[in-house]
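Key result, reporting period 2: structure in, sequence out.
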């Protein structure tokens, strides 16, 4: 994936002018860089790319004759307008392993016996995983097949995830990823006629009417 950028030499208050013109100020960081690189990119292009790349897909930034492979490390949103204000890119090398956080997604929940029988609900208690891999091997997301869950005592841990051999999980192996909660029993309201309080009141009503005559 590629994103065209431009070098940025304006800072502070003048940065707001860029934002009003539809651009985002950004910075590239990296251990191999002598110092951070200030850049800018078109907001629409970044948003489009971010929806596809997220945090774990390598992106090639291009300006002039230079290319830099990066990951989208962090971004800042306007609390009112919900637009992107600033982006931090992490510069990486093609043959050096990098750390990233990858989303965890449950699959086939509706096929689980415990869900089909209304005996419990399956909960994703950790929605991302810290991993390490070469840039080309970073998965966009990690899927967890929960179709076989048939007991409320089931827990899926980090150590249970089916990861490719070239991807290393950095989180605690005993960290829970998926748990099961017993379904709550529905409380059925008693029919008025079966309610002792209603029956006693109904039986007493005729006597009260006779006493008032």
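The corresponding designed sequence is given below.
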């Amino acid at each position: 994936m590629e994103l065209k950028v431009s070098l940025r030499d304006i800072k502070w208050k003048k940065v707001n002018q860029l934002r009003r013109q539809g651009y985002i100020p950004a910075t590239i960081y990296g251990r191999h860089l002598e110092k951070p690189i200030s850049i800018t990119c078109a907001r629409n292009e970044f948003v489009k790319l971010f929806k596809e790349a997220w945090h774990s897909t390598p992106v090639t930034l291009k300006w002039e004759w230079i290319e830099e492979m990066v990951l989208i490390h962090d971004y800042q949103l306007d609390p009112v307008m919900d637009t992107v204000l600033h982006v931090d890119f992490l510069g990486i090398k093609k043959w050096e392993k990098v750390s990233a956080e990858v989303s965890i997604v449950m699959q086939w929940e509706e096929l689980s016996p415990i869900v089909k029988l209304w005996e419990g609900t399956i909960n994703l208690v950790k929605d991302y995983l810290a991993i390490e891999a070469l840039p080309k091997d970073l998965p966009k997301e990690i899927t967890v097949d929960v179709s076989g869950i048939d007991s409320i005592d089931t827990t899926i841990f980090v150590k249970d995830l089916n990861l490719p051999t070239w991807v290393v999980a950095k989180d605690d192996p005993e960290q829970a990823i998926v748990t099961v909660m017993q379904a709550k029993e529905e409380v059925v309201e008693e029919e008025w006629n079966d309610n002792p309080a209603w029956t006693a009141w109904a039986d007493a009503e005729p006597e009260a009417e006779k006493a008032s005559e």
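The helical segments are 15-20, 43-53, 113-116, 196-212. The chain is about 20% helix and 40% strand. This case is discussed further under Risks and Mitigation.
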